[in-house]
Every structure is written in C-alpha cells, then in structure tokens.
Specification:
The protein is built from 15 helices and 7 strands.
Length: 406
C-alpha cells in the first residue's frame, strides 16, 4: 500500500482527512481489476465507494459551478492524491508545453535562445522561478548530462509542488466561499470580496496554464506580486542552501486575513512579506488589497499602520504562547515606480518572454537597493551587516546580464 500525505481537518467545514482517505481508496480501486479481487469483492468495493462518494453530492455535468462544494473539493482531492503518487514515483509532471533549454557545464549556467538568436545565461533558480509564470523547460532533453541528474529531479518535484499548492488553494477558497459563506456573512467588509477575487484569479491561471500560456494576461497588481515572489524564489534556490534560507507560499487566508503574500524562512525565524497590489477605489475604502500607491500619501500610511497592527497582533499572540504564521511582517511597495514595473513586463513580452521572467529586466540597483534590501533588512542576511551575501547576490545578477542601473 502506498502512503499518502494528509491535510489537516478543517475546523469549520470540510473533513479533508476523510476525503483524502476516500480518494486514496478510489485510486487504488481504479488500479485494481475484477480478476485481482474476485467478482464478489470487486462489486462490493465498487458499491461502497460509489455510496461514500455520492455523500459529497453529484457532479452537475451541465453546469459544473452548480456541483455541491463538498463534491468539488473531493474531486480536487482525488486529483491531489494522483499528483502525490506521480511525484513519489518520480514520474514526469504533465504540462501543456515546454521550451528548449541548453546547459553549459563550464559556466554552470543554462542557455536560453532569446529573440534574434541572443543566448541568455540563466541560473537553476531562474528555471525554478519560471514555474511561477506558467513556463516550463524541456529538462528531459538534458538527461544525458550526469551533473544535472539531481536538478532534474528537483525541477520535476517543484512543478508537482506548484500544482499541489494550487489545488489546496482552490479547495480552501471553495470552502471559504461556498461552505463558510464568508462573502454572504461579510457584506460591506471586504473579506468576502477578497476571497471571490482571489478565486477568480486562480481560475484564470488554470485556464492560461491549460492553454500553455504564461500568466502575463493578469492585473498589474498580480504581476508585481508574482515578480517579487519569483525574484525571491530564484535567489533562495541559487543561494539558500549556503546561506540557510528559503521561501514558502502563503495561503489565501494568509493573504486576505494576515496580509502575507510570501514567507521568507530563515533559521528559527519566518518573515511574512506583504506586497502592495492593484485594487479598485471601493477596495481602498474597505482597507484590504490597497493600491500600489506613492509612499508618503495618507493611503500608504494607512496600509503601513495595518501591517504594523498585524505585526503587533503576531507579537501579542506569541507572548501568550500561541502559534503565529510568521515572526515578522514587512510591506513591499514600488511607490512612484509602479509604471516602471508595468513597462518592465512589456519589455519582457517584446523580448519573447525570455527565461528568467520579467524580473530579470529590473535593474540590479532597484532589485537589490529597493526590494531585496527591505526584505532582508534586520535579519542575519541584512545587506549592511552581511556584505559577503550582498556581493554574492550581485554576482549572480550580473552573470545573467541584468543591467546595473535604470
């Protein structure tokens, strides 16, 4: 029997433990035959499974959105368990299409042929971070290079992890929206609308990925958040082992309730990073996903106060011995440079979406001096206190051809 990961049981809604167990049974039964089990046992198990699955409700084939929430979550759980099995077997993850990539053993860099025949040098971290843009590479074609064997396994596992994270996110959103009825119970408070908006974004991402497209056809706020996330991903993969840090994704609850978009994990400490996004005017009044606004304005000060209050709440809970999602919380905002962030995306698109994402078209000055400096400030990797780490970050950025200044 295969062993499977289990999610924790929800406190207020869906029993994920029971669903995971039933999903495993369904998959195992599908992989068996009447000949293996015997006719009577086969029919018995089939009937039991059908009855247990039906308890979640029936799938509405004419209008899938009308399928009961419990059944939607269960079907996602079956998909999740299939991915877990495939990952543990070391299978190749399924993606719509892959891009050609080469590897130069001497420089230990990956080579991507960009528009016009230009060969862009990229690190392993760039390939990993591009998963966040819905872009994948033909790593299988590099299996004849022994030094890449470990990376190929890690790369495939990271694709599986990204898809698993997406499924768990969708399950949580369905629970919050359709079972907990948060939108209905929070009219005028913004939380419900935030969950709905996040769910719509997730569904758009799934459609784009299924079509083999990157996630650039999204609101600028989403793109900026993804740029920061992917920037951290590549730095963490390339330097994280040596410097003992990594990043992890935040859940929809972390984002909407705790104002956390991504989590930086250092030894014995977790720092939450809230990234300013692009909302409507009504959202500004509700105080949730606040605009990518200019520093120093009253709106920006309000956002800072929200983050500060959330951080104080975390500290208070920790003093009482309660578990908190992070130890520290900071705010990342491009301020007056938001238009430059949008233009960076356009440059990347004009260049044929070269490997490494739009973040490689940011200058080293801005990437390090504005974003990464704020993220690592006050930690053991603070650029002012750890110049060796700073120089290593600069070095990998220079090697991939990022420009020094704007």
């Amino acid at each position: 029997m295969l062993s499977f990961e289990k999610q924790e049981q929800s406190e207020t809604g869906f029993d994920y433990v029971a669903a995971a167990d039933l999903a495993r049974q369904k998959i195992e039964f599908e992989n068996s035959s009447e000949e293996d089990l015997g006719t009577d046992e086969y029919k018995k198990i089939k009937s039991q499974l059908k009855r247990q699955i039906k308890a979640y409700g029936n799938i509405d084939v004419n209008d899938p959105d009308k399928t009961p929430a419990q059944r939607k979550i269960f079907e996602l759980e079956v998909e999740r368990q299939r991915l877990i099995i495939a990952k543990r077997k070391g299978e190749q993850p399924e993606v719509a299409n892959t891009r050609p990539i080469e590897y130069d053993s001497e420089s230990q860099m990956f080579i991507f042929e960009a528009k016009g025949g230009y060969q862009a040098k990229r690190t392993a971290g760039d390939l990993i971070s591009d998963i966040g843009w819905g872009m994948y590479y033909d790593i299988k074609a590099l299996e004849n290079q022994p030094e890449l064997a470990e990376f190929i396994n890690i790369y495939n596992a990271k694709i599986f992890d990204a898809h698993l994270d997406e499924i768990e996110e969708e399950q949580l959103l369905i629970e919050r929206i359709e079972i907990n009825k948060i939108p209905k119970n929070n009219q005028g408070k913004g939380i419900g609308n935030a969950y709905l908006k996040t769910y719509e974004t997730l569904k758009k991402i799934k459609v784009l990925r299924a079509a083999g497209k990157s996630y650039t056809e999204m609101p600028s706020g989403f793109v900026f958040e993804r740029m920061i996330n992917c920037l951290l991903t590549k730095v963490a993969f390339d330097l994280g082992v040596k410097w003992n840090f990594d990043i992890s994704n935040a859940t929809a609850d972390d984002d909407i309730v705790n104002k956390i978009d991504v989590i930086l994990e250092l030894v014995n400490k977790r720092r939450g990073i809230g990234i300013e996004k692009n909302p409507t005017e009504s959202e500004l009044k509700k105080g949730y996903q606040v605009t990518l606004i200019t520093s120093g304005t009253s709106e920006f000060i309000k956002k800072q106060n929200q983050v500060r209050k959330q951080q104080e709440d975390f500290q208070h809970d920790k003093a009482l011995g309660k578990k908190t999602p992070v130890d520290d919380l900071i705010l990342i905002n491009p301020g007056e440079e938001i238009e430059d962030v949008a233009s960076t995306l356009k440059i990347w698109q004009r260049q044929g979406m070269v490997a490494g994402g739009p973040e490689v078209f940011l200058s080293i000055e801005r990437t390090i001096g504005k974003y990464l400096r704020d993220i690592f400030h006050g930690t053991k990797l603070d650029f002012d206190k750890n110049p060796e780490f700073l120089e290593e970050v600069k070095k990998i950025f220079k090697e991939k051809g990022m420009k020094e200044r704007d």
